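Input chain follows. Return structure tokens only.
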Amino acid sequence: MIKDIFDFINNGIETHRTFNTSRWFENKQIKLFIRYTPRRYINGEFIPTIDIASVSVEPKFQNKKVFTYYLNNIETEYQHISIYVESILNSKFKDWLIKRGYQVVHQGDCVILQRT
């Protein structure tokens, strides 16, 4: 599934899209809604972002680093693009992302790992 995610993001980057593209990715462990946004307004400027809009890990796979695997791969592969995680409902999840270097934006329910 990680290859499918990379192919999706690469397609958005390579085709120089001017609009958002999004897609669900899922397997028996996790369901992710990912978006490539070529122009997100953050801290007074427009930047491209990879958005993680929804994460759902099956109960028996929770706390087994399933999401961490995907996030690590996305962060490593796309070191030049900011990663935006939106509408966070779980405070432990938000705290975990902040410990990874993400910064709170948009009324506190979203975080971004801003890249230059």
